[in-house]
Write a structure and sequence with these properties.
The structure is a single chain. This protein is an alpha+beta fold. The protein has two domains: about 5-95, Arc Repressor Mutant, subunit A; about 105-235, 2-Layer Sandwich (Endonuclease, Chain A). The protein is about 45% helix and about 20% strand. The chain is built from nine helices and eleven strands. A hairpin with a 7-residue loop joins strand 9 (about 190-195) and strand 10. It is rod-shaped, with a radius of gyration of 35 Å.
Length: about 240
C-alpha cells in the first residue's frame, strides 16, 4: 500500500515537493528557510521545490517583506488534480490513434492432403456453427470431425448432393458438382476451392471479412434454392 508521499508523487509532484506540501499542510505558512529546516531538505533544493510546488498548484506564495508559502487545501488540490486529469484523459482519448485493423491475407493451400487437414482443423476449432457445401463424396472425408463438432454443441449446416448419414446436422440437398467445396466456421473462417485427391488441388483460405461475407451470401443462396426444391432435411 502506498504512503502519503508516494500518493502525492502520483499526482505529478517530486519527492521534495511532496514532503514540502505535507509540511506546509501541517505547519501553515513557512518561509523557505523554515520549510528547509522542518523537512531536512537542503535550502537551495527547498527553494527550488517550493517554486515548483507553486507552479504545479500545490502551494501559494504569500507576499511580504519575507516571502512565505502556504499549501493549497487538500480538498482544493485534489479537485484540481482530478479536473486536470479528466482534461488529460479526454485529450488522450481524442488524439490517440486507433489500432490499425489487422490485415487478413488470402492463403492458397495446395495439395489434397493439406487442404483436407485444413478443413478438418476448421471444423475441430469451430465453436458455434459450421456451414459446409460439397458433394456427398467429399463429406465422407470429414464425417468424424462433423460428428465431434455436433457433440460439442456446434450447429452444423450441410449443403450436399446425394444421401448423407449425419445425425444432428441440418442438411440441404441440391445438385452439387463433385470437388467443389466451400466452408465457413463461426462467420470468421472461410475455405473455398476444389479437390480431386490430387497434389494439384488448390483452395483459398482466409479470415478476410469481405471474402467471408461473399461466401456466406453464396451459401445462403444455395440454401434458398434447396428449400425451393424441397431439399431440406433435419437429421
Amino acid at each position: 500500500m502506498m504512503n502519503l508521499i508516494e500518493c502525492l508523487m502520483k499526482t505529478g509532484l517530486t519527492r521534495h515537493e511532496s514532503e514540502l506540501y505535507v509540511a506546509l499542510s501541517r505547519e501553515g505558512e513557512l518561509t523557505g528557510y523554515e520549510a528547509a529546516k522542518v523537512t531536512g531538505i537542503p535550502r537551495a533544493n527547498a527553494y527550488q521545490a517550493l517554486a515548483a510546488l507553486v507552479e504545479k498548484g500545490g502551494a501559494f506564495l504569500v507576499e511580504g517583506s519575507v516571502p512565505r508559502y502556504t499549501s493549497v487545501t487538500v480538498d482544493e488540490y485534489c479537485k484540481n488534480v482530478l479536473r486536470h486529469m479528466e482534461e488529460v484523459v479526454e485529450i488522450i482519448k481524442k488524439e490517440c490513434p486507433q489500432r490499425r485493423k489487422p490485415y487478413e491475407p488470402y492463403i492458397t493451400i495446395t495439395g489434397f492432403k493439406h487442404i483436407l487437414d485444413k478443413i478438418k482443423n476448421i471444423i475441430d476449432e469451430a465453436q458455434e456453427r459450421v456451414y459446409i457445401s460439397m458433394s456427398d463424396t467429399e463429406f465422407t472425408y470429414i464425417t468424424d470431425e462433423i460428428q465431434n463438432a455436433l457433440k460439442r454443441g456446434v450447429r452444423v449446416v450441410a449443403i450436399a448432393s446425394g444421401k448423407l448419414d449425419i445425425k444432428g446436422a441440418i442438411i440441404h440437398y441440391t445438385a452439387k458438382a463433385p470437388g467443389q467445396i466451400r466452408i465457413i466456421a463461426d462467420s470468421a473462417n472461410v475455405l473455398t476451392g476444389s479437390i480431386s485427391e490430387s497434389e494439384q488441388d488448390t483452395c483459398l483460405y482466409s479470415k478476410n471479412k469481405p471474402l467471408v461475407e461473399l461466401i456466406k451470401d453464396s451459401l445462403k443462396n444455395e440454401i434458398k434454392l434447396s428449400e425451393l426444391e424441397g431439399g431440406k432435411k433435419n437429421e
